[in-house]
Design goal:
By secondary structure, the chain is α/β, with parallel strands linked by helices. It is built from 18 helices and eleven strands. The protein has a six-stranded parallel β-sheet. It is globular.
Length: about 475
């Protein structure tokens, strides 16, 4: 048994408080600083976008402003996107599109001409006008997604998953080839997605992709080489996904988004300036048509539309797209016609929808539709089409029962003013803005609206899936 040592006891009494103080200091340090050190270390090893997500949460006092809005982008092998456009010149069917791939799909910038004619038509001093091709949407959308404010590299946080597949370039490069070749890359993509861990969450129902082609190009009805397009949207995996395209087949997983226009501003101030310009411009013609006839299409009313326009020379402006001058490929000439017109005729062409509709709206011109199939853009246009457009029966025009000039001239100035005001409100919703603006200057453009609606759709599908699981049906 150890003997009592008064000296040792005395020393112990001196050391005990010091030890307790040391323990308390370590505890305080751990509580106050260690979480911040861990966060700082983690921050150093995050991607730029993940760092942005943390910054956003910190600035909002730990409120996650992106909750329910996170989008994860699949890092696809380059054969599904970049390789397709890098080899653009190799494919005869793509060759005339290659020059439009510059500036992230916006195309070559529109520059001032020698006589200042361009400046009188467009606000070119802003550097926001480009010769944008109507089929470049998938390239534009992918670039926009890289700057989406709630992009995440953590798929477990995401509410939707973007698949940056250039489906339009794939289907177009093998136009007229055998179906095996046309279908190969789509089948390859389906297998790649199916093997990803993200797929198992909703088996593709939270996945979406964008194409700059019309929906029918991806829904071939048979395996005959003579049949149109490929069968991408008939693949079981892709049938679960959401497709955004410039025109749909009215299928439940297809949604129409605007064709790209020539205008890609950065700020809301630019848009307001443009809206003022189209609001005050003097319009010399009651109506106009920019396009060409379709003599090979028996049901087309374009020939009759052109005939009536030419017969109303004082009231109608016709820009013929079937001439060697290629005036319809000149954005300045196209926009000049639309800005000169109160109404812009939009008869169906090869398909029901037209890029011309969006160029006309951009110019503040009231669109005139002849088919309800021409108005598919429920996310971007008002539900009540009569607020911003005029409808004339395609059948009545075909049978010569209606005078377009007479019908349009009967619309009152008050009604015209009301419709033009609605058209001007639509302008920000149908453009694809250049990335960069933040805060109040950020534009809620066609891209922002489309992503928001996709997120709403996925959320609804998720609730239905969870309800089915709760009922024991899944």
């Amino acid at each position: 048994m150890e003997k009592f040592n008064p000296r040792k006891k005395k020393i112990v009494r001196k050391q005990a408080p010091n030890l307790l103080i040391h323990i308390l200091l370590v505890l305080v340090f751990s509580i106050l600083f260690v979480p911040h050190i861990n966060q700082t270390v983690a921050y150093l090893f995050l991607s730029d976008q993940e760092a942005l997500n943390i910054t956003l949460k910190t600035k909002q006092g730990e409120t996650d402003t992106c909750a329910g809005r996170y989008v994860y982008t699949h890092n696809l092998p380059s054969r599904f996107n970049d390789d397709l456009i890098e080899s653009c010149e190799s494919y005869a069917e793509l060759r005339n599109k290659c020059k439009y791939l510059v500036n992230s799909g916006f195309g070559p910038p529109i520059l001032e001409d020698e006589h200042n004619h361009t400046t009188r038509i467009l606000t070119t001093e802003t550097g926001s006008w480009y010769s944008t091709n109507q089929f470049m949407l998938e390239v534009i959308f992918r670039e926009k997604m890289k700057h989406y404010e709630c992009l995440t590299n953590d798929s477990s946080l995401s509410s939707a998953i973007f698949v940056p597949f250039y489906a339009g370039f794939d289907v177009r490069r093998f136009w007229g080839y055998n179906v095996k070749l046309r279908d190969a890359l789509g089948e390859d993509l389906a297998q790649w997605l199916r093997e990803r861990p993200e797929w198992r969450k909703m088996y593709g129902r939270d996945h979406f992709f964008v194409t700059g082609r019309v929906g029918r190009d991806f829904r071939r009805g048979s395996d005959q080489d003579s049949d149109w397009g490929n069968k991408l949207m008939r693949l079981p995996e892709v049938e679960n996904m959401t497709m955004l395209s410039i025109e749909t087949n009215s299928c439940s997983n297809e949604f129409a988004v605007p064709y790209p226009t020539y205008y890609h501003p950065t700020t809301r101030t630019e848009v307001r300036t443009w809206q003022k310009q189209v609001k005050t411009v003097q319009r010399r013609y009651l109506f106009s048509f920019v396009g060409a006839s379709r003599p090979e299409m028996e049901e087309s009313i374009r020939g009759e539309v052109i005939r009536q326009c030419l017969a109303s020379q004082e009231s109608c402006k016709f820009l013929n797209c079937d001439t060697p001058s290629k005036d319809c490929g000149n954005p300045v000439k196209v926009m000049e016609v639309f800005q000169d017109s109160v109404f812009c005729l939009q008869p169906p062409g090869d398909t029901p929808t037209r890029r011309s509709t969006f160029d006309a709206v951009l110019a503040g011109c009231i669109p005139v539709f002849f088919s309800f199939d021409s108005v598919q853009y429920k996310w971007h246009f008002p539900d009540d089409h009569s607020k911003y457009s005029v409808y004339i029966s395609e059948e009545d025009v075909r049978e010569g029962k209606v005078s377009i000039e007479k019908l349009l001239s009967m619309i009152s100035e008050e009604e015209i003013l009301s419709m033009r005001n609605e058209v001007e409100k639509i302008i920000p919703k149908i453009i694809y803005a250049k990335p960069g603006a933040v805060g109040p200057e950020r534009i809620e453009d066609a891209f922002e609206i489309a992503v928001s609606r996709v997120l709403e759709r996925v959320s609804s599908l998720m609730k239905n899936q969870n309800s089915a699981i709760d009922l024991g049906m899944a």
